[in-house]
Amino acid sequence: MFSLLRSNARLISKHTFRSFNTPVTVRRPLCVSATETAGPGDSVKVHYTGTLDDGSVFDSSRQREPLEFIIGAGSVIKGFDTAVTGLAVGGTRKSRISPADAYGEKDPSLQMSFPASSAPEGLKEGVKVQLSNGMVATVLKADKENITLDLNHELAGQALTFDVELMELTQASKMARATFGAGCFWSVELAYQRTPGVISTEVGYCNGSVDNPTYEQVCSGRTGHAEVVQVVYDPGQVSYEKLLDVFWGKHDPTTLNRQGGDVGTQYRSGIYCHTPEQREVAMKSLKAAQAKFSAPIVTEIAEVSKYTAAEDYHQQYLAKGGRNGNPQNPSKGCTDPIRCYG
């Protein structure tokens, strides 16, 4: 199954593999009047069929749930954002997207070779593998001496044509944002993906000392950032208080800079507020939560600052399969136990 999610592959140093299979995560925004049109910041739910210049279909959502995303959030390729912008519910458009606005041209620097002795047996040319950090690569060459991988997207260098239909729309003015840190962001994100009323989730880093840190910099502990999940939600469907209930229930807020085996300031417990109203509600919620714990709660409550989205391979990590290739259900209301690493 092809994915419209934007790819941002880069060279890495680890070479642990697993077979690759990525599910599609779908959430349901509210319908709006057909007189309203989609624009930046709006949440949209779209059916599409994608074809190449030779007329072959490389993907279609018509046999499954529509794709949902927020226009301009960077979660889909730029040209797809453009194809949907301006449509009203029920509107359709056919749009040809150049490689520059799709997956770019093929980049030779995103090919890497290493000794076959450091890879598992059975790798063959054309096989897709997932690296230990979640990034996906295609085996270009495999012999007794060396393995060559290509981290370019499979559609890099190609123009894409999409027939799109806007099915549902929630405008940005009807949405709100919340940010929480509760240890490793993978499992916290899955908990919020499952929460009814949550439109989208994104993992990232906030409240550190530098702008736009990388995962490696955050893990060093030198930037002071926390691993967080940023949630876009519909206040008409779920309250901020309910989101806080999910937060308190997902981790132990009495352990300083630690959750389970994850230790470091990046794993601290934190509620990072976007408005004074959120801060007031968060303070009241902390006082109520303290009654449930014998040890003092050490949760940080602060205004969100220096937020940076995490690398693409971290997004929806457990729903995609985690490090063991075992996808976990992100469906609304799902109560399956969350396995931190998949």
TrEMBL record:
Catalytic activity: L-methionyl-[protein] + [thioredoxin]-disulfide + H2O = L-methionyl-(S)-S-oxide-[protein] + [thioredoxin]-dithiol; [thioredoxin]-disulfide + L-methionine + H2O = L-methionine (S)-S-oxide + [thioredoxin]-dithiol; [protein]-peptidylproline (omega=180) = [protein]-peptidylproline (omega=0)
Assigned GO CC terms: cytoplasm
Keyword Thylakoid: no
GO molecular function term, any single one: peptide-methionine (S)-S-oxide reductase activity
Region (Disordered): 319-342
PPIase FKBP-type domain span: 41-135
Enzyme Commission numbers on file: 5.2.1.8
Keywords: Isomerase, Oxidoreductase, Rotamase
GO term, biological process aspect, one: cellular response to oxidative stress
EC top class named in words: isomerase
Keyword Glycoprotein: no
Family per record: Belongs to the MsrA Met sulfoxide reductase family.
Record protein name field: peptidylprolyl isomerase
Lineage: Eukaryota, Viridiplantae, Chlorophyta, core chlorophytes, Chlorophyceae
